[in-house]
Fold each of these.
Amino acid sequence: MEHVSCNLCGGSDLRPVYEQPDTLFDINDWFSIVGCARCGLGFVNPRPEPEEMTRYYPPEFFSAFENSGAHQNRYAAQAALLAPTTAKANGTLPLLLDIGCANGDFPRFMQARGWRVEGLEVSPNANAITDFPVHRMPLPELDFDAPRYDAITAWAVLEHVHDPRAYFNKAAKLLKPGGQFVFLVTNFNSLSSRALFNEDIPRHLYFFTQDTLRAYLADAGLEMRNIYFDKAIFEMTPVNVLYYLWAKLRRRKLLWRETPESRHLYIQRKELARGMGATLRYALTHPIAAMDRCAAMLYGRWQIRRKSYGIITVAAIKPVP
Ligand SMILES: [Zn+2]
């Protein structure tokens, strides 16, 4: 484990925000999440060092990608954020780099829509990709710096990396003037991220807000053009909102130990097969948690309307000098 200062402003005045264990793989492994008093960036601190991270990404983590052919709606929503493709006067097609491309389904989706594509993926668990180039290293380690891409995308990637600043800076270098950097992260200004334990700890190491993202972009020489708070691409259902309200009524901060056992952990503990039967059993044995799931769906809609949803999508541009 390593202690770090703020990746955005270098500050070391860090305030505790909450603590929770790794609810996906090891319920006894606890982490502290802090906020930088100066700039508002959130992060896990202390945190596992980069070499230690593989144990938090067991092969089961990647099995979610396996039937990613089913995510065509998501890819269409992602593609809609990119400016339409137009071949250059000399006939070359625009070039896209997708950071964290997993099995390559999104780049493949874009390839079918008139883009040349490249991927970047650090996980050795991701399947082999043979139909376009894939860089097998973290973005900052690419050994070229010249502007090359018309667009760079990163869907739910930047919250996983150890040095977000290096990613923003490298993306800025690799974009051609006028090129787009489009990415999705979680929203540390949302109740979901700050107080409801909806983040995937410790796979998520950094927690961003509109202001901290704007600062990262500006430092890298990029401009934020659009920001969206919605579930068009990924959802973050604000589960535990009823428990939060109950704690608030008693003027207390909700602790992770006071939240109900998740459906995921219940199914694991009871060794049930996933499906409607297991969900029903969970609802019958955890009636308040089941009510909370309904409240969370309603509250999620309200968050979207109030621009306080747990997911932020940003379209930024490298200005033409
Ligand atoms: Zn800071």
Amino acid sequence: MSSFQLTNSVTDQIKKAAQSYGACRTGIARLDRVPDYVAEAYSRWLASGHNASMEYMERYEAVRNDPRLLLDGAKSIIVCAFNYFPEKIRNKSLPYIALYAYGNDYHTVLRKRLRPLAGVISLITGATSRICIDTAPLHERYWAVQAGIGFTGRHSQLIVPGTGSYVFLASIITTAELEPDKPCRLQCPAECRRCIDACPGRAITTDSHINASRCISYLTIEHRGPFPDGTNTANCLYGCDMCQRVCPLNNCVSPTAISEFSPQDTILTLDADTIPDMSPDEFSNTFRNSAIKRAKLEGLRRNAALIISQRK
Ligand code: SF4
Ligand code: SF4
């Protein structure tokens, strides 16, 4: 990681620093309560049961709707996008693994990169900050749009113009009052429905939300216990990405420069057949640094068993 260059404005210094720690895009928004339409859309999604078993998404509503409650005196949010598109892709004959899981677990990688960035912010502004990487209840995509770094596609993922949707988002909430960016007003092309048509679980709803109980990404990663009757995971071992794979706004992707996201050899070659006999120790050792451990050994075995049974 290189040291950042001092520039004229505080926000420029922060963005340069974020870039030096690997962010491909950084934007700033002024913190406030989210508008009612955002809170209401989220409540409707929960009320439809589309969060499936992810009950944690129902908690901390007040904080989610007003992230100023996350940090005393919070004034601004800095949202960073980090490209994770790998330089090598698994052979198409192997079951699918989501691209975000090829390298080291992003929670650890990004926290290591955002910590010094928070230090830089503190040094420049004297402010206190809080890092959020999937660790706080936050309408993260809404804030990414407000910070001007991208827009939400019909598949419900953030699309960074010129980079695509294979990005992790990480945020820093700070007491510094920073000059905000303009929100991103772009949208998906009006006629495009490719992600909706290609979704193997028919999980993308008409209001561009995801019905998690139908989403293969949810089913193969978050869901515990047996699959619901009739589940077809479309040869996915962990995650799915189909909605991103078909998206024309991902034609611009280029490989990540973040070395920790380079594909691990064991993940590039992992086949379903090796999983049923994997011991808990082998599982822990193989996926110690990988997001795949999230599925747990039982989950990965269940996913592999379905793939193997559907080959017969
Ligand atoms: S990850 Fe797969 S199943 Fe889930 S919404 Fe995207 S295409 Fe559909
Ligand atoms: S496939 Fe089309 S509709 Fe779906 S997110 Fe990409 S551009 Fe938007």
